[in-house]
Design goal:
single chain; mainly alpha; extended; about 230 residues; about 80% helix; Serine Threonine Protein Phosphatase 5, Tetratricopeptide repeat; 11 helices
Length: about 230
């Protein structure tokens, strides 16, 4: 009983000593601590003010400018979508003038697709790589479009890599089998028939209700036949 009491008292003493040292540290460094806390408060308030009074108005302004660029994009008026019409900015100027906004980020995607359609594949890759998104559909579509651009440039291995990345980005029955099939076809062009069979079978197993799965057995049989002849 005495031993237990002694142990408890020792713990209390240790805690008291710890508190005493903490108090002493605070007392000795009071000025520095107040300066650091003040700096943190200033940074937080500045960030909140920046978001409310600078970023939010810029975002609204960028969205109003994007409206016409998106409309031109939908109409396939690619040059007007890219460069604007004199009254409204095109995607390239929206990126430059509103670079910190969500609209500018989305403009990277649109601009990349515009250049892809125009056959300017290096520019397409440049802007599509700048686009960042967690959207279930748009994010993998942007990655897949990079694959398309590399395919057009003749870099089939990079194209296949990006198709697989697009397929794995957000697993779903619409996007994943689409890009797996593209990857498989690209592997066939690379004479990597074992890889082609692998991704075709993944479509068959994991996405058997998808559009791509309807004739996937034919693709598997062809790739396996070519693999046997290799």
């Amino acid at each position: 009983m005495t031993k237990k009491k002694d142990t408890t008292e020792e713990r209390i003493v240790a805690v008291e000593e710890g508190l005493s040292k903490t108090e002493q540290f605070i007392e000795n460094n009071q000025k520095i601590i107040l300066i650091v806390l003040g700096a943190i408060i200033v940074i937080v308030l500045a960030y909140m003010g920046y978001k409310k009074y600078i970023l939010k108005p810029k975002e609204i302004e960028a969205q109003s400018q994007m409206f016409m660029a998106e409309k031109y994009f939908e109409q396939d008026s690619l040059d007007l979508a890219i460069n604007g019409d004199g009254n409204y900015l095109g995607f390239i100027d929206i990126i430059d003038e509103y670079r910190v906004t969500k609209s500018a980020n989305l403009a990277n995607y649109y601009l990349g697709i515009c250049y892809l359609k125009k056959g300017e594949f290096n520019d397409a890759i440049k802007y599509l790589k700048k686009f960042k998104s967690k959207d279930q559909i748009v994010a993998p579509m942007a990655i897949g479009a990079i694959g398309d651009a590399y395919m057009e440039l003749g870099d089939k291995q990079k194209a296949a890599d990006y198709y697989l990345e697009a397929a794995n980005k957000n697993d779903n029955d619409f996007i994943s089998p689409l890009f797996l099939k593209k990857a498989g076809q690209t592997y066939e062009e690379l004479n990597k028939f074992d890889k082609a069979v692998e991704v075709y079978k993944k479509i068959q197993k994991n996405y058997n209700k998808s559009f791509e799965a309807r004739e996937i057995e034919k693709y598997i049989a062809r790739a396996e036949g070519l693999m046997g002849k290799k």
